[in-house]
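Summary for the lay section of the report: proteins are chains of building blocks that fold into shapes. Here we show the chain for Glycoside hydrolase family 65 C-terminal domain-containing protein and then a coded description of the shape we predicted for it.
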Amino acid sequence: MLAFDPALPAGIERLSFAVRWRSRKLRVTVTAAQATYALHDEDPRPLALVHAGTGIEVTNDRPHTVALHERVAALPTPQQPPGRRPGSEQ
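The coded shape description reads as follows.
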């Protein structure tokens, strides 16, 4: 089963991509607040997938939009080593 738990890094407002899985074409569009899953193929059957641990079904005539959950950083932001700051001469 396909499973997604998308999140965008700061500075990227939207990401859209297609996945072909078991002869099905799924388009995924992610913004900072939500993800939309839409089928674009000839098969009328629904496609079951998982979004952030929750099962959803998508059909050709009914895309499924779900809210993204807030992310908490697992680790602190890494620091540049001394003398290696971006833009410095090496």
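Put simply, here is one thing we learned. The mean pLDDT is 89.
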